[in-house]
Amino acid sequence: MGVLQILHPKHGDLKHEWSENRPEEVELARKTFNEAIAKGMLVYKMDEHGEKVGEVICTFDPKIRRMIAMPPLRGG
Questions:
Q1: Which of 5, 13, 45, 76 has the fewest CB atoms within 10 Å, counting from its CB?
Q2: CB of 5 within 8 A of CB of 68?
């Protein structure tokens, strides 16, 4: 099972889960991933413990078990 967690400061956190053997779930997760990218969010590949690997991903891969999307940090 895969998980895409979207962190949003105004709307709270959303979590999308999918199973690789369920095409409709994979497609919904792909659509959600692409929408996050289109909004300018960064998506990071996570390890199995939920730690950032440090790798920003730009293409949805249903084999990645954990991803986290968040808006880029802005300095000021």
A1: 76
A2: yes
Q: Give domain status of residue 76, yes or no.
A: no
- Cβ(45)–Cβ(53) below 8 Å: yes
Domain harbouring 41, CATH code: 3.10.20
Residue 38 inside a domain? The answer is: yes
Q: Is residue 75 part of a domain?
A: no
Residue 18 structure tokens: 């999918």
**pLDDT tens readout for residues 14-53:** 899 999 999 999 999 999 999 999 999 999 998 776 666 6
Query: Which tokens is 40 given?
Result: 């300018």
- Amino acid residing at 41: M
In degrees, to the nearest 5, what angle opens at C-alpha 25 toward C-alphas 22 and 30? 125
